[in-house]
């Protein structure tokens, strides 16, 4: 009987995330992981990666924010340590774990991908920037940053968003074609909001 190592890995890490992620992670939640997983699968299929590459990509997505269980600071490295500790028992080789860790580490901003799979996970992690649910998802990130004291006002949040959208770029052809136009629209909208906030009150 063939062991479903991906299925076992998914079950293992989802349970770990459900029991371990702090409640104040309104954005970096299980929902975010599932969202990135869906985006990664879509991008992987459209970019014609192999089944084996797809499996490693999906495992990296499942672990990419697991470090938040322990600490938000350097969570990518912690997530990589969690992967290294558990993936051998789940059937992954040292070489495969190295590829997976490369993908986890590259989600640290600003990303510097060294290969195609790393480009795909970077695009999947920020897929929402060019989607219709950008502002809805943004609210959960704003709430999380408020809770951690990283931002203190909506104006500061919009300045952060403006800077982030302006400096961000997608790597894969698929993400550029599907998300760039809408992302630019979001940037213009955020700039409008900042103008309104800066206009003198009558």
Question: Tags for this entry?
Answer:
202 residues; mainly alpha; Hypothetical protein af1432; 0% strand; globular
Q: Could you spell the SSE succession in H and E letters?
A: HHHHHHHHH
- Count up the helices: 9
Percent strand equals under 5%
Number of structurally distinct domains: 1
**What do we call the CATH topology?**
Hypothetical protein af1432
CATH superfamily, by name, is: Hypothetical protein af1432
The helix fraction, in percent, is: 55-70%
What shape does the CA trace take?
A: globular
Which second-level CATH architecture applies? Orthogonal Bundle
- Number of separate strands: 0
Rg (C-alpha, Å)? 18 Å
Look at the structure and give the CATH class: Mainly Alpha
| Sheet of most strands | none
Q: Are there runs of 5+ residues with pLDDT below 50, and where? A: none
Quaternary structure: single chain
Average residue-wise pLDDT: 95
Structural overview:
The protein has 202 residues and is mainly α. It has one domain (5-198): Hypothetical protein af1432 (Orthogonal Bundle). The chain contains nine helices and no strands. The protein has helices spanning 5-20, 30-46, 51-63, 75-86, 94-105, 116-125, 134-148, 154-167, 173-198. The radius of gyration is 18 Å and the shape is globular. 33% of the residues are buried. The model has no long low-confidence stretch (mean pLDDT 95).
Topology readout:
Elements: H1 5-20, H2 30-46, H3 51-63, H4 75-86, H5 94-105, H6 116-125, H7 134-148, H8 154-167, H9 173-198
Helix pairs in contact: 1-3, 2-3, 2-6, 3-5, 3-6, 4-5, 8-9
How would you summarize this macromolecular structure in one to three sentences?
This protein has one domain: Orthogonal Bundle (Hypothetical protein af1432), CATH 1.10.3210. It has nine helices and no strands.
């Amino acid at each position: 009987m063939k062991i479903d190592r991906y299925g076992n890995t998914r079950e293992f890490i989802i349970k770990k995330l459900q029991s371990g992620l702090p409640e104040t992670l309104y954005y970096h939640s299980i929902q975010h992981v599932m969202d990135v997983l869906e985006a990664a699968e879509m991008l992987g299929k459209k970019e014609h990666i192999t089944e084996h590459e797809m499996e490693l990509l999906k495992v990296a997505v499942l672990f990419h924010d697991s470090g938040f269980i322990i600490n938000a600071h350097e969570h990518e490295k912690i997530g990589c340590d969690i992967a290294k500790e558990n993936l051998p028992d789940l059937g992954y080789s040292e070489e495969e774990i190295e590829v997976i860790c490369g993908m986890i580490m590259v989600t640290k901003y600003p990303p510097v991908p060294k290969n195609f799979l790393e480009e795909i996970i970077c695009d999947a992690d920020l897929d929402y920037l060019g989607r219709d649910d950008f502002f809805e998802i943004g609210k959960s990130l704003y709430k999380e940053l408020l809770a951690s004291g990283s931002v203190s006002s909506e104006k500061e949040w919009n300045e952060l968003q403006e800077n982030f959208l302006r400096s961000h770029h997608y790597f894969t052809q698929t993400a550029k074609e599907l998300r760039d136009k809408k992302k630019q629209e979001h940037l213009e909208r955020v700039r409008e909001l900042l103008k309104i906030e800066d206009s003198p009150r009558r």
